[in-house]
Amino acid sequence: MDLTIFLVIFLIPSSSSLSFNFSSIGHSTSHSITILGSGYISEKGIQVTTDERGERLAQLVGRATYIDPLHLWDRASRKIADFSTSFSFVIDSRGSLDLGDGLTFFLAPIGSTIQPWSFGGNLALGNGGVPVNSTSQAFVAVEFDTYQNLYDPPQQTHVGIDINSMKSVVTTKWENNVTLGLQNDAWVSYNGSSMELRVEFTGKSRNGTQRGNLSYMVDFRDYLPENVTVGFSAATGDLFETHTVKSWEFYSSSLELAPPPPPPLPPRIVSSSLPPQPNAGGGGGGVGLVVGLSVGLAIVIVSLVFASYFLWWRKKKNNKKEMGDDRAGSFHPHMDIEFQKGCGPKKFSYRELVRATNNFAKEEKLGEGGFGGVYRGFLAETNSYIAVKRVSSGSKQGLKEYASEVKIISQLRHRNLVQLHGWCHERGELLLVYEYLPNGSLDSHLFKGQTILPWEVRYRIAQGVASALLYLHEEWERAVVHRDIKASNIMLDSNFNAKLGDFGLARLVDHEKGSQTTVLAGTFGYMAPECVVTGRASKETDIYSLGIVFLEIACGKRPIGRSKDQEKQMVLVEWVWSLYRSGRLIEAADPELAESGYDEREVEQVMAVGMWCARPESDQRPSIRQVINALSSEADVVPGFPPLMSVPT
């Protein structure tokens, strides 16, 4: 092996993603968060500016940043990382109608500090509407502004995107009652290919929780260095309010660094008429030294090669013993390398997962899926819970679906997708490690009586699943056809936000290709008619499944069930269609919703969109972007339906 090649292989720098999830913030997370200014961490969360310690609340500044940096872009390849973050926060004026000034989520150069003039509308970042004049103080931020400065838009409370100045490049109104100190949620994502920075957020009004969004095209390479810090900032002026971050989740993609250029070739030796130089030591000792070093170096390199080969051979042999003959032969030696090209998941050892799940104890079992059981586990190293999917050894497609899930979902980052933390294939086991979502699956709440979900929560779940599918179908670099969207594959986090999971059947397709021929896959009741007949999966078949889920959410019924008298089978979409034809659509609403009350217009809207998605004719279904627009529009944008439901032949 050439020494240059050897060094290049072992000395190429690596670029890892940034990934963490603080579902609740307290003293236990203080080692991961750096505080600047007047802030601190309590059991209530990150107090970005002073709260219950009894100190003054006016003209305060504070920052809270994650301890590790984010590799935002790579100078050699010019690639920019994707990232997504979500957080819950409270801004509380303690009943006062005079409030100020706000909270931001920001990115800034490592070492960026709070400046003396950054209180009030500067939100611990900027210098009013004047651009910063130092690269070390550069920033890009999403602001939740509660005070109207001269450079602000007409709305007193608004959300904006700031680039090196507190004069936002884009803003939108933020309906929020800060005087009551209610909790809000925000999601910020960036697509490194399209360079779109997108913000979605909740607000409070008399009509309940409202959702808003804004976006802006920004090339981070023009404003920020390759490595940055991420976190929150807040400030008060002469008026005051408190700023608390209750939870925080962050994921970024890794950047594959370009290998360093090969070292220059040694100078070419040419003959010279100059006389040879005498050896200082005499007797040709210099030549002997060169020869000796060359031989020694060659022996070292050869020894390293043989030692590396022996260790690789022994590890491969042991892995085969551990995994068992049935599955070991199915793994290519480079499978781990392929898996590690994803954006953050890691390889776990079997021993780690046995310890975390108490040897897959029955009391830790969360449920059983099509490819095996799911167990709750606890990782002492990170002080966090995980969910471990144990692929059944009796599943004929287990290995294929396992590999597909790791390779696809490890590259995806979205607030409404279940995040994969890692994998393990040892001792004949196929194990997938996910984030733990304490509220389980949507179907357990709709059909198994775990809790009664109020309409406000159901409506947010419908929007969240649609947002996940928009990312899969249109926003990621390649289109992902999920092929198994159903209520049991929609998980709920601690705030009942929806997260779509189980990508074992998912397939990557090019954006310009509409469908692909495949073996029949999916779940009956959720499968589009053409998928059952031809086995052809497409974006349109995903839309059909989404429509069935919408009907389940609004009606509280399974896709296929029994009529009230239990005498005949009832197909949900046909039953809702019949009520629509007779002008009694609202009668399909889940009776359980009456206890907490609901907005009839929204319920009918979700059912109408569900029927639109579940049209038997694939070319009559909406795109996922049309679905998003229909859900968020107050106008009736769903087209009329024919009086009879046709079935394609």
TrEMBL record:
SMART domains xrefs: S_TKc (SM00220)
**Keywords assigned by UniProt, alphabetized:** ATP-binding, Cell membrane, Glycoprotein, Kinase, Lectin, Membrane, Nucleotide-binding, Plant defense, Receptor, Serine/threonine-protein kinase, Signal, Transferase, Transmembrane, Transmembrane helix
Which terms in the GO cellular component ontology are assigned? plasma membrane
Protein kinase domain location is 360-641
The answer to whether the entry has keyword Transcription regulation is no
Binding of ATP: at which residues? Answer: K389
> What superkingdom heads the lineage?
Eukaryota
Instruction: Tell me the membrane topology, using the record's own terms.
Output: Single-pass type I membrane protein
Q: Which GO terms describe its biological process?
A: defense response to oomycetes; plant-type hypersensitive response
User: What span is annotated as the signal peptide, if there is one?
Assistant: 1-17
Membrane-spanning ranges: 287-313
Name the Gene3D superfamilies for this protein: 2.60.120.200, Phosphorylase Kinase, domain 1 (3.30.200.20), Transferase(Phosphotransferase) domain 1 (1.10.510.10)
Please list the GO terms describing molecular function.
Answer: ATP binding; carbohydrate binding; protein serine/threonine kinase activity
Name the top EC class: transferase
Assigned EC number: 2.7.11.1
Q: Which InterPro entries match?
A: ConA-like_dom_sf, Kinase-like_dom_sf, L-type_Lectin-RKs, Lectin_legB_Mn/Ca_BS, Legume_lectin_dom, Prot_kinase_dom, Protein_kinase_ATP_BS, Ser/Thr_kinase_AS
Localization, per the record, is: Cell membrane
Protein function: Promotes hydrogen peroxide H(2)O(2) production and cell death. Involved in resistance response to the pathogenic oomycetes Phytophthora infestans and Phytophthora capsici.
* PANTHER family the UniProt entry points to: PTHR27007
Similarity-based family = In the N-terminal section; belongs to the leguminous lectin family.
Subunit annotation? Interacts with ABCG40.
Protein name stated in the entry: non-specific serine/threonine protein kinase
* Protein species of origin: Erythranthe guttata (Yellow monkey flower)
The uppermost taxa in this organism's lineage are: Eukaryota, Viridiplantae, Streptophyta, Embryophyta, Tracheophyta
